[in-house]
Amino acid sequence: QVQLQESGPGLVKPSETLSLTCSVSGGSISTYYWSWMRQPPGKGLEWIGYIFYSGSTNYNPSLKSRVTISLDTSKNQFSLKLSSVTAADTAVYYCARAVSTSGWFNYWGQGTLVTVSS
Amino acid sequence: QSVLTQPPSVSGAPGQRVTISCTGSSSNIGASYDVHWYQQLPGTAPKLLIYGNDNRPSGVPDRFSGSKSGTSASLAITGLQAEDEADYYCQSYDSSLSGHVVFGGGTKLTVL
Fold first, then answer.
1. What percent of the residues of chain A are helix, what percent strand, and what percent coil, each to the nearest 5?
2. Other residues' Cβ atoms within 10 Å of the Cβ of residue B48
3. Over the stretch A57-104, which tens digit does the pLDDT of each residue have?
């Protein structure tokens, strides 16, 4: 059974860079599309972007200028960096696996809350 | 403002049938991209409920069904149970701006 687990700081200062890692177990990261989503408190889901095992990426147009998603196949992990954060970036961040660019997310991490505050 | 539009809330009594709509446009649902549905219980990660418009993953009860027509999709839940009370999200793909994944704003289902 594939399992995903997010890790990273729970508190980030405004203007700094948010960094999270998703560790994948029970399956290889060398296939499928690996995504990040987020959910501000009390609000809906927002797709941040994905990375394909080949290294190609696609990002949400509204976040594209601040987002970088990378892959570390040796550790079976992928990572998210979101720069110049503000309070509006406070959210639960989820990593997930999709079967294709337009496909469904069949495996999700439990989510990690990141708060942006000084 | 979400690209896919869902009603903020729906409700129904135990045993009843409810539907949740998901309205898109010609660049997403209307462009023949599939619609997927997720159930999110309080404090938990979303769980895949329907994929590819009308397919249920293993373990999802057949009380849940999905459909798609034109620029809209629907999730139907029959025989409503207390444990169905949750938030429901639709998801698709939009071909604008080089293509990207889009979610609906979510619908809160209350079991009366």
1. 5, 50, 45
2. 21
3. 999 999 999 999 999 999 999 999 999 999 999 999 999 999 888 889
Residue-wise burial string across A94-105, b where 16 or more C-beta atoms lie within 10 A, e elsewhere: bbbbbeeebbbb
Asked if A54 is an interface residue toward chain B (Cβ–Cβ < 8 A), one would say no
Among the listed residues A44, A38, A52, the one whose alpha carbon sits nearest the alpha carbon of residue A97: A52
- B9-12 and B107-111 beta bridge pairing: parallel
pLDDT digits (tens, 9 = 90+) for B16-30: 999 999 999 999 999
Q: Positive or negative CA dihedral for A73, B50, B35, A42?
A: negative
Task: Name the residue among A77, A109, A67, A73 with its Cα closest to residue A92.
Answer: A109
Is A104 near chain B, with CB under 8 Å?
yes
CA of B34: how far to CAs of A53, B22, B76, in Å?
22, 12, 17
Nearest residue on chain A to B97, alpha-carbon basis: A61
